Model the fold of this input.
Amino acid sequence: MNKTLIIAEAGVNHNGNIKTAKQLIDVAAEAGVDFVKFQTFKAETLVSGKAKKAAYQEDTTGGGGQFEMLKKLELSDKDHLELMAYCKQQGIEFLSSAFDVASLHYLHHLGMSYFKIPSGEITNLPYLKTIASFGKPVILSTGMATLSEIEAALNILTSDKVEKDQITILHCNTEYPTPMKDVNLMAMLTIKEAFKVNIGYSDHTLGIEVPIAAVALGAVVIEKHFTLDRNLPGPDHRASLEPNDLKAMVSAIRNIELATSGNGMKVPSKSELQNKPIVRKSIHLRHDMTEGQRIEDKDLIALRPGTGISTMDWESILGKTIKNNLPKGHLLAWSDLL
Done:
C-alpha cells in the first residue's frame, strides 16, 4: 500500500507564540500526520514596506501592510531549534517553507529532509536555483501558476542536483478559503500527464472533502492548514482545520489508501466470500412435485440460499424428471433428477 505523505500546515497560525506553536505540534502528532510545517522568513527580505495585504488578509487582520503583519509572525533561530526538538520528542517530523534565499540556506543548514516551495516562489529564479543546488527532495506548490510557469520552474529545479523523481508537484489554489467552484481538482491530473511527475494537492478549501478526493485521484502528498481555533486573529486561521477535523481528514485519507490498494482484479474478496451462499439464489420447487413428474418453468422459483443448483442452470433443469416425491420449497439438487 502506498502511503500518502500528509503535511499539517501550521504556517503562521502560532501567531508568533512559541507555546502556541508547540500546541500545534501536539495536535498534528495526535492526528497522525507525517509532517508539521511552519514558515521561515524575515519580513525585511520577504516584503517591501509598501506591500499591500491580500483581500483575505485584510479581512482577518485589519489594516496596515504585509510587513507589519509578517514581522509579528517570524520565528527566531531559537524558536526553530526549540520546535525541531519538540517535534522529535513528539514523534513527528518538522518541516518549514522558506520565503527567501537566506532562509533556504538556513533550513539547509538545519538538515531539512524536504524543501517545500510555496506558490508565491514558483517564479523566483534565484530561489529555485538555490534549491536546485541542494539535491534534496522538493515539493512544489503551483497556486496561481500556468503549465508553462510550472515547466519553467521544473527545468530550473532539475538543472543542478535535483532529479525529476525527487519532485512532487502540488495542485493548489491560493484563495483563502478557496471556493469549491475554483478548486479545479482535475488540473492535478493534467500536471501529472504533462510532466510525468508525482502529484499532490495543497488545499485551502473549507472542510476535508477535497483533499480526500485528491488522494482517491492519486495524490501522494496532501498539505492542509490547521489551527487550534478558527476564530483566532491572524491571516490563515479561518481557512484552516480545527483539531478534530484534522483527525477526521487523516483517518479518511488512510481509509482511502486501503480502499485503493487492491490489485484491480474483479474477484470476490476473502471477507465477502462468506456472504455468497447467503445472498445468492438457488433453484427451489414452487410447489409439491411427485415422482416421475417432468419439470416445467412454472414448477421452479429462485430463492435464497445459494447452496443448491445455480439459477444460471435454470434452462438445464427444464424437462428433467423428478426421482421422488418432493415438497414445496425444496432446495433442488442434481441428485433429485433423472
